[in-house]
Amino acid sequence: MSRDNSSFAELSSVQQDLLQELRQNSARAVIFHQFISEKLGLNATDHKCLDYLNHAGPVTAGQLAQLTGLTTGAVTSVIDRLEQTGYVVRDKDPNDRRRVVVKPVPEGSARISPMFQSVMQSTLQIISQYTDQELQLILNFIKQCNEMTLAEINKLKKETEKGLSEK
């Protein structure tokens, strides 16, 4: 990420520090999840899609594409790989037998959970230092960051699709 030094310099010291820490947090999160992915025999995208599935429960490929911002074609490939490695199964949608839902396999979750116990304990220790009011402010900030990131993903996806259609 390049930064426009003129606009960066106009920020307060705490704003500059926050942007630097967010950047470092993002990079470390990517590296952390890459290591987890490798231990699970997955690539990082498959691992994060599996994380969505483990939290959202059974979803269709289209719903997973909406959750992640990935194309439906990319999601189909992810589901294929996760199914081959035993982390998910495809099943008929109980509400619409023409559709397929993707379900995480409990044994797969059982393999993943121990890898996150330490980070979960550390996170709980950190958040215990804040009041509920402070946590609500942090939560609001993170939600807005997540919405912004998804909007940026969708913008990049549209630009890529537009570029491909112009070829």
From TrEMBL:
InterPro entries: HTH_MarR-typ (IPR000835), MarR/SlyA-like (IPR039422), WH-like_DNA-bd_sf (IPR036388), WH_DNA-bd_sf (IPR036390). Keywords: DNA-binding. One of its GO terms (biological process) is response to stress. It holds the Pfam family MarR. The keyword Repeat does not apply. GO terms for molecular function: DNA binding; DNA-binding transcription factor activity. Residues 15-147 form the HTH marR-type domain. It comes from the Bacteria. This is HTH-type transcriptional regulator YcgE. It comes from Paenibacillus montaniterrae.
